[in-house]
């Protein structure tokens, strides 16, 4: 063998493999990788809000390469929208609210609202939305436009009064305040109050705002 020449591996000797560029401890894509990324994203948005959540941080929590998150989702906005698929269709909420006697509107609104928040999956998603709304103008705009189009608009139209949108918007302030104090701030005794008690106390207030 001449100097500088390279020996050829024998047939029984495995050739050297290129080293993997994947970060140690991170797994490649699998059958449910997208679902794991969405789960990690929901937890991050719920715990940190939109501004403090990063694609890289979500990848770390999901145990995958950051490039894999970008493979499934083009941007953090898209990741948020996908992961925050609402636990109930807003159009169904409007239909439930409007599907009964006018003098029971307040009770149906409070019951429906708390029903969404009291489910485990619903509460996590709604927490993420609430925290992200206050940290991202884009998220706030998306929520404002969606709620106005699918809930506030139909309910206001059913009220058929000149100040209907103001009435329904004031109801929204009551419900947002309830969500903040019970589920995010966890202010006692509201945080641990039984659901029937909350409904009985809030329903007349909501009814008054709508129809008084």
Topology:
Elements: H1 33-48, H2 55-62, H3 66-72, H4 76-83, H5 90-98, H6 105-118, H7 120-133, H8 137-159, H9 164-184, H10 195-211
Q: What does the model show?
A:
The protein is an all-alpha fold and 212 residues long. It has two domains: 33-83, Orthogonal Bundle (Arc Repressor Mutant, subunit A), CATH 1.10.10.60; 90-211, Tetracycline Repressor, domain 2 (Orthogonal Bundle), CATH 1.10.357.10. It is built from ten helices and no strands. Helix 5 (90-98) packs antiparallel against helix 6 (105-118), helix 8 (137-159) packs across helix 9 (164-184) and helix 9 (164-184) packs antiparallel against helix 10 (195-211). It is elongated, with a radius of gyration of 25 Å.
Give the domain tally.
Answer: 2
Q: What proportion of the residues is helical, as a percent range?
A: 55-70%
Low-confidence stretches: 1-27
**Separation of termini?**
101 Å
CATH class category name of the largest domain: Mainly Alpha
Summarize the structure.
With 212 residues, this protein is mainly alpha-helical. It has helices at residues 33-48, 55-62, 66-72, 76-83, 90-98, 105-118, 120-133, 137-159, 164-184, 195-211.
List keywords for this structure.
212 residues; mainly alpha; Arc Repressor Mutant, subunit A; Tetracycline Repressor, domain 2; 2 domains; 10 helices; 65% helix; 0% strand; disordered N terminus
């Amino acid at each position: 063998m001449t100097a500088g020449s390279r020996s050829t591996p024998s047939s029984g000797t495995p050739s050297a493999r290129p080293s993997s560029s994947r970060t140690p401890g991170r797994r490649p894509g699998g059958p449910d990788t997208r679902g794991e990324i969405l789960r990690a994203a929901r937890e991050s948005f719920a715990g940190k809000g939109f501004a403090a959540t990063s694609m890289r941080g979500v990848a770390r929590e999901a145990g995958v390469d950051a490039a894999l998150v970008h493979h499934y989702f083009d941007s953090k906005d898209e990741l948020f929208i996908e992961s925050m698929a609402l636990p109930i269709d807003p159009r169904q909420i409007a239909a439930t609210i409007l599907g009964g006697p006018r003098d029971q509107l307040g009770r149906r609104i409070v019951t429906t609202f708390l029903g969404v928040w009291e489910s485990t999956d619903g509460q996590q998603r709604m927490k993420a939305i609430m925290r992200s709304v206050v940290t991202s103008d884009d998220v706030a705009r998306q929520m404002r436009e969606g709620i106005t189009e699918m809930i506030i608009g139909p309910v206001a139209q059913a009220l058929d009064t000149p100040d209907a949108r103001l009435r329904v918007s004031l109801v929204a302030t009551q419900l947002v305040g309830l969500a903040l104090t019970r589920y995010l701030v966890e202010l006692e005794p509201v945080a641990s109050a039984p659901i029937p008690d909350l409904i009985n106390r809030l329903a007349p207030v909501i009814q008054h705002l709508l129809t008084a």
